[in-house]
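Notebook entry, cofactor series.
This is the third protein in the set we're modelling with a bound small molecule. For this one the ligand is flavin-adenine dinucleotide. I'm keeping the input format identical across the series so the outputs can be compared line by line later. Sequence and SMILES below, as received.
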Amino acid sequence: MDLGFTPEEESFRQEVRSWLESNLPAAWRHGGVGGYREEEETEIQRDWQRKLYEGGWLKLGWPQEAGGRGATPVMQAIYQEEMATIGAPGILGRLGVTLLAPTLVAHGTQWQKEQYVEKILSGELIFCQGFSEPDAGSDLAGLRTKAEKRDGKWVLDGQKTWSSGAHYSHKSFLLARTDPSAEPHRGIGFFLVDMHQPGVEVRRIKQMTGGGEFCEIFLSGAEVDDRDLVAQPGDGWKIAMTVFGFERGGLAQAARFERVVAEMASLARERGVGSDPTTRQKIAQAQIEAHVFRLIGLRNLTRAQHGHAPGPEASVTKLYWSEMDKRMQEAAIGVEGMYGALAPESDFSVQDGRWQYGWMWAQAETIYAGSSEIQRNIIAERVLGLPRGR
Ligand SMILES: Cc1cc2nc3c(=O)[nH]c(=O)nc-3n(C[C@H](O)[C@H](O)[C@H](O)COP(=O)(O)OP(=O)(O)OC[C@H]3O[C@@H](n4cnc5c(N)ncnc54)[C@H](O)[C@@H]3O)c2cc1C
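Returned structure with ligand:
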């Protein structure tokens, strides 16, 4: 495992830092605002994506022939780390930028690449992901939304759910069954669906955070041109696996957790419980776990540096950080004492309710991108070689 950075990498870090210092407004730092101010957050994320695009950062790891900077995995990790350390907000088109654009580069037609990739990066086109259905989440191959070819167009009928940001998205990358008689993993198509057309209805789902960024999508006779089908009608599963590869192979976020621990320690001092032995132990435990996560991140980075794609070990990373974040957020709520029970938007909430919001949000982290149970199954079967459960 490689624990150090070269002088070139350190100089790249300085470049990222000074760009962030000059371009990231102070009010947008430290994770932005809580979800109960969702509309405000949406606009911040839209503007931030535009700034990053104009700064050339959204193509950092792309090859130079494709207009990218050809940054190594280590440089990309440094970029991510600096973003997390300063508390930069997310970008509005995250799913399009991180999942769809590289998938189109790998599997799209020339027309799809020219039509979509640059617009996805610039934020001109926002895409949401339409994979999950009410009865198809972990078992995604059980999806039932139908796509039928009629008069030269694909006609879609069915229901999607938990689609993040569908209410502000222009399009969706969506899986639908093109051949009901085929085996579950075959006969699925990967479509780019216009969200603003008759036959597409979006309903927001109110969450316990007070936000409503997840949506149900109802499709009744929605139409898709052939040119918006990615690859062949039965290739959707293979393409979805490419998408998941980008999702699960994420770079180290250790800096984010180290920042959370430091902020938790300062919260403890602010609330006058910094010398309480139980609080101190919880914060020390969080610090140890964050450090272990940094080591896991460095191990993954070393693998990537040697050209190895993330394997099933990526499940260890996902399981570790998502479960750790839940514990950290819970410990922080404990530091707030009885104020931790207040709703984030309460006038009396501590630090603008950010810890309550963080705790509620953390509950979702062990569900999306493969739940903890699914990750444990993968670790058991593919890392430890245990027999498949029934
Ligand atoms: C924050 C968030 C954002 C999301 N965004 C999107 C999005 O933009 N687009 C999209 O398409 N989807 C999205 N999802 C949906 C997400 O992909 C699903 O929630 C996830 O795949 C789990 O599916 P499910 O909710 O149907 O739960 P289920 O699959 O029904 O699982 C229910 C429970 O059973 C367990 N379980 C299921 N199968 C097994 C098994 N074989 N062995 C052991 N335990 C099992 C699960 O771990 C879970 O605890 C999002 C979810 C969240 C929380």
